[in-house]
Amino acid sequence: MADREQIINRLLQNSAEIITADEFKSRLASGDQLTHYIGFEISGYVHIGQGLMSALIMKDLTDLGVKCTVWLADLHTAANDKLDGTQSTAAAIGRGYFTESLKACFASVGGDADQIEFRLASDWYGRHGLEYINTLVQVSKHITESRIKRSISIMGKEAGESVDMASLIYPLMQVSDIFFQGIDIAHASMDQRKAHVVMRDTADKIYPDQPKPVAIHHPLIDSLTGDKKMSKSRPDSAVFIHDTPEEIARKINKAFCPEKEIEKNPILNWTKHLLFWNRGERSFIVVNEKEGGQKDFATYQDLEQAYTAGKVHPQDLKAAVAKELIDLLKPVREHFAQPEIAAQKAELDKVLKNR
Hints:
355 residues; Rossmann fold; Tyrosyl-Transfer RNA Synthetase; 2 domains; 6-stranded mixed β-sheet; 8 strands
């Protein structure tokens, strides 16, 4: 395992953003037992942008001694009308398929799933209801309606559009969840940034004498189609964690990957953020299918330079990425091959089919 300084530097360099880096380093140096949280709506199959990207951050944090928690946001899922729109279905899929997915992803990056705590939001609200309501009221008193309306993009909605009251409550719940659990490090993808900025501003007002929770944002992983972020409603835009090797190879092979271009190139984006997150001394190997031979890359920067110079062909890069993802996701496929785990996915299959 890398030493502590190497892990901290990797998080600082590879995360899309840490608010703030100095606070993060200071909190780690304090010697306190720090707590982490990442919250998920329970909405469809888990893709690698959720599963692997989150697991890579959590693996580094657990190696630093941070207690990591996955918050299964079933009431939030119902508020955002995902799955069949009910809390009961979101809770069942959260306890089953979604928990098993995140456990398998954590194992695939070398983690021990027993180190991660999974919390179902409605269970916690049920046990600590008055405490949560008090937190929600305090948060509500310090956030304006206009700011909440600017924050609903965290739900995939546009600011200014007409929304129901549940959509306005949602960001308040997201901020309250962090305070309610006593979290030190709030973690999400970059599309959740607005909620975390609101959270930190609110912390100044409600808890002025306490350190604000640090916010870690991991990069959003590009869609394979090259236009928008990965979408569960467009299966070929993403690789889902339990896709077969044949499905992974097919999706990668047809992906947008312009020759010599770095920007808006999902294959390079995935290579950088997922496959080079923590390679250690392993080279990234690209085989030249036409001429034979191979090129070994020690760093992503070396690969990028070779690609822009035309020394790596898109199809050869795709083949290398597909092979690595197939190998990386092997523990996930083996996990879902177990009958009792496969049954959890089958329950989600039914919900999505009837939606």
